[in-house]
């Protein structure tokens, strides 16, 4: 069984007031082409499809065209809602979408409703656990008001369903902050009662856990277990704290015994992110052609604010996005 794991598209997001819709459109085109090239059995999307609960018309149109393209190509999608999504809006029309091969999982009732995939070794059950706000679902799940309790109960329902079906290979999509994950600047806080994370152990017993929420690609260890957990990360950078990250999706293979192998496939990021620091005149004198096509953050250390600094920076590097003034720091340096 071959799957392609991605998450945190954040359609409609801007990067410091710069629209990313064209870059997101190119990513979705690339994702479909990659899914076809790799002959995957399904694409897993682990939440935060949109950047806002009420997405822009352009973002809705982009998702609509992408879902139609995947359906026309016969590539199944399993999609859960994230904390940025409106579960009701994203889940609208889920019954019709199911018939087109787009499996939306946006409610607590969906956690025990698998997408059943088949290969020469039998079935693989794919369960979608959307972002679940503890206050909204704790009574339904019969658990305490915490992310850990809610996730433990939801995963328990998923794995109990797999046991009832006699399916031993299980994939769980979840949009959550798992303890030990490496955060970046661009995630939204999901803390409830002072705690925003849940231990990896709540997923013990699943074969592969396709995580969403954290934007940095990373695996999460679970000692003494064969369960594999991984964040695919966002396909594009959303902060300069991610400037050194290699953005990717995860190609996941499950063998007959449920042994998992993973390969990270780099996504097409349109331009690098660079940060430069120093006096304005020294920065403008830098001989670094790579900066001309990069998203740039400039930290100016001039004792006094220079005249028209952003205009002068953009004349030199047209994709300068951020300007910070930190007087009397170190002299010119470039971080690449």
Kindly state the mean pLDDT as a whole number? 93
Q: How much is the radius of gyration in Å?
A: 22 Å
Residue share in helices?
A: 25-40%
Q: N- to C-terminal separation?
A: 39 Å
Spans of at least 5 consecutive residues with low confidence:
none
Largest sheet: 6 strands, mixed
Strand order, biggest sheet? 6-5-4-1-13-14
SSE series: EEEHEHEHHEEEHHEEEEEEEHEHEE
Strand content: 25-35%
Q: What's the β-strand tally?
A: 18
Q: Describe it for me?
A:
It is built from eight helices and 18 strands. The strands form four sheets. Strands 6-5-4-1-13-14 form a six-stranded mixed sheet. A six-stranded mixed sheet has the order 7-8-9-10-12-11, with helices on one face. A four-stranded mixed sheet has the order 17-16-15-18. The chain has 336 residues and is an alpha/beta fold. The mean pLDDT is 93.
Can you describe this structure in just a few lines?
With 336 residues, this protein is of the alpha/beta class. It has 8 helices and 18 strands.
